[in-house]
Amino acid sequence: MKKTFRLALAAVIGLGTTALNLAAAPAASAAPECGVFADGAAAEAAAAVESACEQIGVPYAWAGGHGAEPGPSRGDCNAGAGAPNDCNVIGLDCSGFVRYAYALAVGEDIINGITTTQWQSSRVVDRFLSSEGYDPLLPGDLLLYGTAPGNLHHISMYLGDGWIVEAPNSGALVRVSAASSHGDYYGAVRLFEGGTSSAPAPGSQRVAYAEGGELWAKDGDLEAPPEWQASDVKKYVMEGDRVAVLKNDGALLVKEGDLGPDWYTVDADSVTDFQLDGDRIAFTEGTDLYVVDGEVDGEAVHQDAVVKAFRIEGDRVGVLTAEGELLVKEGDLGPEWETIADSGVTDFQLHGTRIAYREGTALFAQEGELDAPSVDQEVDATAYQLSGDRLAALTAAGELLVKEGDLDPGWFTVDADSVTAFHLDTDRIAFAEGGELYAKDGDLDADIVHLGSGVTAFQLDGDRIAALRGDDLEVKEGDLDADWIAVNPDSVTSFQIGADLNRPIMN
Fold this sequence. Notes:
Helix 1 packs across helix 2. This protein has three helices and 41 strands. The relative contact order is 0.10. It is about 5% helix and about 40% strand. The protein is mainly β. Strands 4-9-5-6-7-8 form a six-stranded antiparallel β-sheet. It has a four-stranded antiparallel β-sheet with strand order 12-11-10-41, with no helix packed on it. A four-stranded antiparallel β-sheet has the order 13-14-15-16, with no helix packed on it.
């Protein structure tokens, strides 16, 4: 539900999860006056910068800005986070600051949460990693700092030209700083599409499809010619600028960069399944799980667990054992596992700092640290999916339910009956009633748009939607009412679009 806020202050995005450990910012005299320093940002993003700049001089307060509505609030005293007196300060912390700025700019509380949940928000339209530098960024983008999606501790707003505005730390005021003043920049998120100065995220414009065991892929315009990739393909996955294939003889091959012919053999035979996420490759040989971290030719580290199913997400690895025990580790690939549930788990999913799993059709979810309590979602789910700050569940009666924000009770009914399949990505929801495909964009209560008939499979990724009608693959991009473009009019047996930032549905 939209909430309107009085335009008075500005800034918005989250409570860090650990104490700040920031490099010293430049002297105040060296910083320019706050403002929009580059062209190309969406009007909403530019307005958020202006709102953020109005907060210059507002005190930092640990946990400030996280009330029921955005805006400065009394902080928490937290000596361990370097904020022993912040319960006596009315102000904003880093994530509360960006939350407030965007709420003032657009009249809606669109980026509530802490840094880790803001990174995975369903409102995000694009993500950038530190390896891409600052060049792709536009004013209004939100820069996050830390070592992994589950270990982000600070957020700021980009002004352009290498400058940020931030609520830096306890005892300081909202200020302009050099983006380079923080040594652990992890990446950035964009909440509104900007101008043409932004390069697409690696792999975001890719389409791959199989014709039986023959794999083809294209990058860029939907009408670009496809490039042949491999034969005898059992499974394939795109992730960022990587493409991986599992051959019928058990060989796992990965390439990165362009779609040219160079493959690296991760394992020459006996691979039974695999996944990609970020710069990690996980694969099984029967019930033995291995993970490669970093370069494609890195060491495959054996994971000490007997595996029935597995998933990787960021710096987390999860496994389900034959006894129904769900184990997750985060950080390095060493031997330490955290038991999420000790029995009865039938399947699970990882997404950001969230874990969802079923015991039969009973759905549970948790968020944050691995030892956080699991929350009963009070629904019998035949399928479910995590995406950003949204969780969706499909019931046996065909009811599609979605919640966003925290994991507390309260579902929104997208469709009360007859849904047969669904998919979430960013702030879009697509679902089928038999062969009829529908979608909505934006708020959960947005209008539903009929997209087509005769659909046998579909996928969302960013502003693209793909649909398979028999063996005819069509893709549209942009608005939901955009025209379909034929990618391959016949013989397609499976497909994937985009860099797979969204996680698969579990059913």
